[in-house]
């Protein structure tokens, strides 16, 4: 099933000509420690990110950062999860080996088994309309 003539579908992923990758997974999950070092990534997230566990686990979460993302978005993410315990927003991530994908992320503060602070991100697929709004908003931010 293709959304445009030249799209290529493999592994349930759709590769658009401009590098965007569309996915049908319901949730892409990851967890970090207090410093943003990744401690867990779901198979669905690894697949969409085109990564092996070793590419992500033990690394700072910014290994998936896309240069188009404004610094202000992550400033608000870290400010909100630390002060309010949650943040929600749109994120464009860089795929390993090229390409990118958009997520609507909810990041929550939690406590691990040892009583240490951890953060959990639950990502779902945004609508085209929401992606377009995020592109327009992020173009105005630093
Ligand atoms: C649970 C959690 C999930 C995160 N997920 C992403 C993500 O998918 N993509 C991303 O670019 N940054 C993500 N971040 C933010 C990164 O830690 C980092 O702040 C961001 O990539 C910007 O990099 P910088 O802080 O080095 O400027 C996440 C942070 C947390 C706590």
Polypeptide structure, described:
By secondary structure, this protein is α+β, with helices and mostly antiparallel strands. The chain has a single domain (8-138), classed as PAS domain (Beta-Lactamase), CATH 3.30.450. The protein is 25% helix and 33% strand. The strands form two sheets. A five-stranded antiparallel beta sheet has the order 5-4-8-7-6, with helices on both faces. A three-stranded antiparallel beta sheet has the order 1-2-3, with no helix packed on it. The longest helix has 13 residues, at 71-83. The N and C termini lie far apart (37 Å). The mean pLDDT is 94.
* CATH topology category name: Beta-Lactamase
* First-to-last CA distance: 37 Å
Question: What is the CATH superfamily?
Answer: PAS domain
| Rg measurement, Å | 15 Å
Our count of helices gives 4
**Please, what is the average pLDDT?**
94
Small-molecule binders here are: flavin mononucleotide
CATH class: Alpha Beta
Strand content: 25-35%
Quantity of strands, as a count: 8
- Structural class, from secondary structure content? alpha+beta
Helix percentage range: 10-25%
CA-based shape: globular
Major β-sheet, in short? 5 strands, antiparallel
Poorly predicted runs of 5 or more residues: none
Oligomer: single chain
